[in-house]
Design a protein that fits this description.
This protein starts with a strand and ends in an 11-residue tail after the last helix. A hairpin with a 4-residue loop joins strand 7 and strand 8. Helices cover 47% and strands 15% of the residues. Helix 5 packs across helix 6 and helix 11 packs antiparallel against helix 14.
Length: 543
């Protein structure tokens, strides 16, 4: 229908949070919000630490029958896909923790998934203090623990119990293997990480079965090895003003270094600062590329200009792969991909070729066929709502063009009918109007109503006008509205095909987005060094 409605105790709680009227239906408390404005109300509930279940209509209304409804999805803080509610410069993690083993074999497993980007990582820690330090760095929006470990882990911030069955080792392995379509998880480098895999299984089970979300874009499982990074405890992170400060972001290390051009780059820079790398070879490779960029200021400027035209490919493809994207997401992706060839060419043109430069150049892929497909299919400015139509270009679908033509011809006929009826009746104020209740009708002012021809059938009396219909008008109305409805339905089917075509390229799109994020951070370093005359640090393994 036109409203989402809540009943019983849910209605009482929601009415206060949403500032809407609490009413009753058959003595049952209820409140409702308009369908078209639901996202804003959902956002308010999420900010109030609530989860929101959406029950959608699944059958067509018919006389004498109840409309069937089913829960289509459940939205929680860790699975939000509305980008207006998210900070695009930081990840929105759904995490899980599981304690496995005892004594010297005791390990605290951690799994984190950013459902908006497809990032899925695991790690293990020998004690609770190190785990809590990592949770502070990652700041997950939701933290799951097994309902069997509430007594031990219930003090962790933002934690909530979840079905302990999902964390059982055998069940977690089954969940992960089934999702990744593999016989063994050894290829992900997580052999023997019992606690981490239990946590990862819990996250995936929660997303798939509790929240009913598609997780196809979670395509790999990465191990975050604490020995690869300098570990910064919670107190040090706060005292060093790395990413947050009471005085504002501009007084943090992140604020000093962040000149990234894309949300993807901003998120990666934040992660690099919170997890300083130890590997000398990788650090040297990054500095080599920064050197190359500084040596070519013209190419540095061109690369930066290209990056400014690239949107958030990670989160855009994430939304599309989950079935929640719209035409504007497709257009945003098209615009981003159009600028990749020039960017890749400029990157390859850097004369001081480094290993990292070559790696990034190979990882950044071009998608000429996909760009051409989207260009030919999408209008320049797609509407926000999918069901409104107007998304697909004329000429893309012959069947759609025919329906649109029928609708336009019918509306033209109605416009011409208004002119001919004014001439026939002599009533210059006669108008043909439309509303959702009566469809098309002829409206004549009260003072002229007695001049209506005999073939006009009175439909409604208004305070200042009379409304009429004719058999011919209703016949054309059926053709016009029928064509409109069929055109919108067909256009939605065309959109689904476009979205499916994009998700066929999901893996290379994610690889490209990650490489672009890395390049963005290094260009940010180069610009900062150029601006403040920074010199290259000398690194060695002496410490």
């Amino acid at each position: 229908g036109d409203f989402y409605e809540m009943f019983f105790e849910d209605a009482k709680i929601a009415a206060g949070i949403l500032n809407v009227a609490l009413t009753k239906r058959h003595d049952i408390p209820m409140c409702g919000v308009p369908h078209h404005a639901a996202q804003g109300y959902i956002n308010k509930l999420i900010k109030a630490n609530k989860r929101v279940a959406l029950a959608e209509q699944t059958s067509e209304p018919s006389p004498g029958k109840l409309v069937e409804r089913e829960i289509s999805q459940i939205i929680s803080a860790g699975s939000i896909d509305d980008l207006t509610l998210l900070d695009d410069t930081r990840h929105n993690y759904l995490a899980a923790v599981y304690h496995a083993g005892s004594g010297k074999k005791s390990r605290y497993g951690l799994a984190c998934a950013d459902h908006t980007t497809g990032e899925f990582t695991v790690a293990e820690f020998p004690n609770l203090e190190l785990l809590e330090d990592e949770l502070t760095r990652l700041s997950p929006s939701e933290l799951l623990i097994s309902d069997e470990q509430v007594e031990e882990l219930g003090g962790l911030r933002n934690c909530q119990p979840y079905d302990g069955y999902a964390f059982i080792h055998e069940q977690a392995l089954h969940t992960l293997k089934d999702h990744f379509k593999v016989q063994s998880l050894d290829g992900f480098g997580c052999t023997g990480m019992t606690g981490a895999l239990a946590a990862a299984g819990g996250v995936l089970h929660y997303l798939s079965y509790q929240l009913r979300r598609k997780c196809d874009h979670l395509q790999t499982l990465s191990v975050r090895d604490s020995s690869d990074h300098v570990l910064i405890d919670t107190a040090s992170q706060s005292n060093l003003d790395l990413v947050d400060s009471r005085s504002g972001k501009q007084h943090t290390l992140l604020g000093v270094l962040d000149r990234t051009s894309t949300p993807m780059g901003a998120r990666k820079l934040r992660d690099w600062i919170l997890h300083p790398l130890r590997d000398l070879a990788t650090l040297t490779g990054r500095l080599d590329l920064v050197d190359s960029l500084l040596a070519e200021p013209y190419l540095l400027t061109k690369l930066r200009d290209s990056l400014k035209n690239i949107r958030d490919i990670e989160r855009t493809t994430g939304r599309l792969s989950q079935g929640s994207g719209n035409g504007r997401d497709l257009k945003s992706l098209q615009t981003s991909l159009e600028h990749i060839p020039n960017l890749k060419s400029d990157l390859a043109a850097l004369p001081q070729a480094s290993a990292l430069q070559k790696q990034l150049t190979n990882s950044i892929q071009e998608f000429p066929e996909l760009v051409d497909f989207l260009q030919k299919a999408l209008v320049e400015e797609p509407p926000a709502q999918l069901k409104d139509g107007g998304l697909i270009r004329d000429g893309h679908s012959e069947a759609l063009d025919e329906l649109r033509s029928a609708s336009r011809d019918g509306k033209q006929w109605i416009a011409e009918l208004q002119q001919s009826e004014r001439k026939r009746t002599g009533i210059e104020t006669l108008k043909i109007k439309f509303n959702n209740v009566f469809g098309y009708f002829i409206e004549i002012t009260k003072s002229k109503a007695d001049q209506a021809p005999d073939d006009y059938q009175r439909k409604q009396t208004m305070a200042n006008a009379e409304r009429f219909i004719t058999p011919g008008l209703k016949e054309v109305e059926g053709k016009v509205l029928g064509a409109d409805d069929r055109a919108k339905a067909l256009e939605y089917d065309e959109f689904i095909q476009l979205r499916s075509h994009v998700t066929d390229h999901l893996s290379p799109l994610q690889t490209t987005a990650d490489a672009l994020a890395t390049l963005d951070v290094l260009i940010s370093f180069a610009e900062t060094a150029q601006l403040y005359q920074h010199t290259r640090p000398v690194l060695d393994n002496s410490c």
